[in-house]
Design brief:
Layout (H helix, E strand, L loop, with lengths): L7 H10 L2 E3 L11 E6 L21 E5 L5 E5 L4 E5 L5 E6 L6 E7 L5 E6 L10 E8 L5 E8 L13 E2 L5 E6 L2 E9 L10 E9 L20 E11 L2 E11 L3 E7 L7 E5 L26 E9 L2 E8 L14 E8 L15 E2 L10 E11 L2 E10 L4 E10 L9 E3 L11 E3 L4 E6 L5 E7 L28 E3 L10 E3 L9 E2 L15 E7 L6 E3 L2 E9 L4 E8 L2 E9 L4 E5 L4 E10 L4 E7 L2
Antiparallel strand pairs: 1-2, 2-29, 3-4, 4-5, 5-6, 7-8, 8-9, 9-10, 11-13, 12-13, 13-14, 15-16, 16-17, 17-18, 19-20, 20-21, 21-22, 23-24, 24-25, 25-26, 27-28, 28-29, 30-31, 31-32, 33-40, 34-35, 35-36, 36-37, 38-39, 39-40
Length: 607
């Protein structure tokens, strides 16, 4: 049995000396995120992101949210897990003896048991050497089970084995039902062409028995395979997993594959790459610039989130067709939408219309990196990313909220003083309503961020339509760019000011949104200038009753079909839903800014 070291004295010192502190004391800016700073027991690898890299890597720190709302952070270099309460208060640190040289990923089940995946490099031809291990430990750190796999297990799913695990890729470990899946990048043993190729690799175990569930036999589950897979992601879904790869070889695409015991042994697949050529190849993915196996893909894979009827994927990509250099154009943030059965949202059988959310143009001073998405409500999603300046090598971190169709529903804002964690997933805690991630800049401390996506700064208010038909920006900001958002919904104007210390702010939709065709929702903005009268929005009327600017809440009276409805203590940017008329058309009212005696927002009328 493995001995586990609990650092009680370190806990006492840390809790006594490092309180849960706010990340920003300026009242004019969001005091968000907050930070918990913990002294590292062993030096942590630098978690600074490798911006514009072609390949992912194992993040030095990995964060998960447990079933009880507590938070766990793994130091992958030293196999130490730092445990925090749901309020992000440090509790203890627990060290594990490495089963093999490298730690790839970890997770925990609902009982608090740990699962850690280890691997090691082997020499060419060492096919029978066991170089992969998945171990389960009790909540107190005692090893309970272990699964070992040879470097070259044989069979088509594992073609040419794993000589260098985690090579030019990352590692993911997730639980779904009674299954646990591991998925990572690897360098293969030499193939008949005399080369050591790179590809994805993984397997699935029964979480209770540790029996292997994947293989080449007819009655086994099939693990995905992508050649030149430079990043990997797993999203647990009902009785299965969604695998995502950043592929350069076969295919040269973002590849999505759904494995589900419920739906049979044949995985569902869809492939899309949102690079800029715009040419649709006679394959099942969107055409991209460059050639297969080029290594430069001019894009970065983010993550995947579940929607009520499908999936949302976030990434970044260049938008021009130039391929002279590794970095030819500003990378911009985009979303892809997919249905549950992995068909694109739309009429075409392929994903051809990404939803572009930014429009950066100066590749030297503004390029989008480190894209992340996480579900925070039934149909609300937190997006976070960084904007990298290649001249001064500085980054700024931004966030916004989107709905299940990919429409922006809150302002884009800069999160001052925060750094994202490269290839680790952004996590959301439904117990507290906070998003979490961890970094370590100097290696001597762990910085756990706690971000409230609903705690937003004051909105930049446009003037009423009668004085200016277009939204106005503050004097500190410059020209407004239009973002092209395909199909649903129409685009929101966003201000891109690249001068120092200017916050990126999305304004409310402009006056005059109309319904261009029957396939789109209808948007109409409004301003309630005071509490004396009413304003019309769509087929309803609104009266402002009370505002609480400090708590970002308001009371409102709504007149619908002859009925009067009062809604109290509503939060900014949370939709109020009403069914209107005999056809029961859904109206969603969003109040996204308030002042002492006024408020404004927009109404979305669902098609």
């Amino acid at each position: 049995m493995q001995k586990t070291l609990i650092f009680a004295l370190a806990v006492f010192v840390i809790l006594a000396c490092v309180p849960f502190i706010a990340g920003n004391s300026d009242n004019s800016k969001p005091n968000n995120p907050r930070e918990t700073i913990t002294k590292a027991i062993e030096p942590v690898k630098n978690t600074r992101n490798r911006y514009l890299s072609n390949y992912a890597f194992i993040p030095a720190l990995q964060t998960i949210i447990n079933a009880d709302g507590s938070i766990s952070v793994l130091d992958t270099e030293n196999a130490i897990v730092y445990e925090y309460s749901a309020r992000a208060e440090f509790i203890r640190a627990q060290r594990f003896r490495k089963e093999l040289d490298m730690v790839g990923a970890f997770t925990k089940d609902r009982s608090g048991n740990y699962y850690i995946f280890y691997a090691k490099e082997v020499k060419e031809g060492a096919y029978d050497e066991k170089n992969m291990a998945l171990a389960r430990y009790s909540s107190s750190g005692q090893k309970q089970r272990e699964f070992l796999m040879e470097a070259h297990p044989g069979g088509s799913p594992y073609g040419w084995g794993v000589m260098l695990p985690f090579r030019l890729g990352t590692c993911q470990l997730e639980i779904s039902g009674n299954m646990i899946a591991v998925y990572f990048g690897r360098e293969l043993f030499k193939t008949p062409d005399g080369l050591n190729h790179q590809a994805s690799f993984g397997f699935i175990l029964d979480i209770n028995t540790f029996n292997l569930l994947t293989g080449e036999d007819e009655d086994t589950l099939k693990i995905p395979f992508v050649s030149h897979s430079f990043n990997q992601f797993i999203l647990p879904v009902d009785d299965g997993f969604m695998f995502v790869d950043h592929g350069d070889g076969n295919p040269r695409a973002f590849a999505f594959e759904k494995l589900s015991k419920r739906e049979g042994r044949e995985n569902k697949k869809i492939r899309s790459f949102t690079f800029k050529s715009g040419k649709l190849f006679p394959t099942d993915f969107f055409g991209i610039k460059g050639v297969i196996g080029d290594n430069n893909t001019y894009a970065e894979m983010g993550s995947l989130a579940k929607t009520p009827n499908g999936y949302l994927f976030v990434g970044t990509s260049e938008r021009n067709t130039v391929v002279r250099e590794q970095h030819n154009d500003s990378r911009n943030l985009f979303l892809l939408t997919m249905n549950e059965d992995l068909t694109p949202v739309g009429k075409l059988p392929v994903i051809t219309n990404p939803i572009w959310l930014t429009n950066y143009t100066d590749k030297n001073t503004e390029t989008a990196v480190s894209p992340k998405i996480v579900q925070i409500d039934l149909a609300r999603y937190l997006l976070m990313w960084e904007v990298y300046n290649t001249v001064n090598r500085r980054v700024k971190t931004y966030m916004t909220i989107v709905d299940d169709k990919g429409a922006i529903t809150s302002q884009i804002k800069e999160i001052e003083g925060a750094q994202l964690n490269g290839y680790d997933a952004l996590r959301y805690n439904p117990k507290t309503g906070l998003a979490h991630w961890a970094t370590s800049v100097d290696g001597n401390e762990i910085r756990l961020y706690s971000f409230n996506p609903s705690d937003e700064p004051n909105f930049v208010q446009p003037k009423p339509a009668e004085t200016s038909p277009e939204p106005l920006v503050s004097a500190a900001m410059s020209a407004v760019e239009k973002i092209s958002i395909s199909n649903d919904p129409p685009s929101f104007p966003v201000d891109f000011d690249n001068s120092n210390n200017i916050q990126l702010v999305a304004l409310v939709p402009p006056e005059g949104f109309n319904k261009p065709n029957n396939d789109q929702d209808y948007f109409e903005t409004f301003t309630i200038p005071d509490r004396k009268g009413f304003v019309s929005a769509g087929d309803i009327r609104l009266q402002l009753l009370r505002t609480d600017v400090g708590n970002r809440q308001y009371d409102i009276r709504v007149f619908v079909d002859g009925n009067t409805i009062e809604k109290k203590s509503n939060k900014i940017n949370e939709p109020l839903q009403f069914f209107v008329g005999s056809g029961r058309v859904l109206h969603e009212v969003y109040i996204n800014w308030i002042r002492r005696d006024s408020a404004g927002g927009y109404v979305r009328i669902r098609k």
